[in-house]
Amino acid sequence: MAEKIVQLAPMLGLIDAPFMNAIAEVGGFDEIFAPYMLADERSMPKPQVLARRFSGISKSVNLVPQLLSNNADAFVAIANILNDLGYPKVNWNMGCPIKFVVSKNRGAALLRDLENLERLLDSAIGRLKPKLSVKIRIGFSSPDEFPAIIEVFNKFKLNELIVHARTAEQQYGGEPYRQAFIESAGNSLNPIVYNGDIACAADANISLPNLKGYMIGRGAIANPYIGLQIKGLSTDNAPTFRQFATEITHWYCARNNLNRLKELWKYFAKALDKPDEIFAKLQKINNSEKFCETVESLF
Ligand SMILES: Cc1cc2nc3c(=O)[nH]c(=O)nc-3n(C[C@H](O)[C@H](O)[C@H](O)COP(=O)(O)O)c2cc1C
User: Fold this and answer.
1) pTM of the model
2) Which of 11, 130, 156, 266 has its CB 3.0 to 4.6 Å from that of 15, i.e. a possible disulfide?
3) At what angle do helices 114-125 and 72-84 cross, to 10 degrees?
4) What's the CA-to-centroid distance between 280 and ligand 1, angstroms?
5) For the chain, what is the domain count?
6) In this structure, which residue's CA is closest to atom 21 in ligand 1?
């Protein structure tokens, strides 16, 4: 079986340039997905604004921009600008379960009306310059919706269909429906990427002929070496976890972004002994200098 690719999941409010740059240095991730940006007819960004958005990201990051949209014209317009800016592939977010996104009929809401979904894809795909990757949930309310969702996507040629194996109603809690995924994903004519709770290399063990690879989010923050480990590659030449975590910590400390650090350290702490104690200790700190010092003292 061909080697599986590994993708870093988009995580709005958690992962941006410093994390992307640091994990690209570690290696093992074939593609890094940017958190979503809105593609809406009423607020079309200029190409310069789009280019600036990714300006802090190192050239060594193989970046895939992601758009959140329920409008084919806006999606195509922005995706084509991104293609002109040098991004050969764009992802369509059809999986976001958050209330204010779903209430505007975006993200996972698109999975609730499959006729509309088909019209949307039909209207966009012929006009798109970049390759199209789509990220979905296994269903909106139930994994039983998955076979019918796959049938709709089978009418189109995608670069890949990334499936977060939770329903939108589950948000990020509960277990992913791994078995329901395995039972139906083989019917996809498009290459499939599995996403959901991959925390170690042993979790990346799905055997399906059309499985292209794995997308990893939270597991990659707790263990940035997971891409290398899945591929059976050595981690000897990668930066140490201390280097990885302190570089990112210093970057946010310099910008006084303690909220972001506290979010990231929820996951970084899992790589160290006594994660709950470390996390509780860091949560109480209200000063960037102290935060950095405390992090240094952990190693
Ligand atoms: C804080 C947070 C932000 C997220 N932002 C995005 C996003 O911008 N776009 C997206 O498609 N998914 C987003 N997700 C979902 C993740 O990409 C991923 O599908 C989910 O975390 C499950 O994968 P994991 O178990 O490997 O973390 C987000 C998840 C979290 C927890």
Assistant:
1) 0.97
2) 11
3) 40
4) 24
5) 2
6) 217
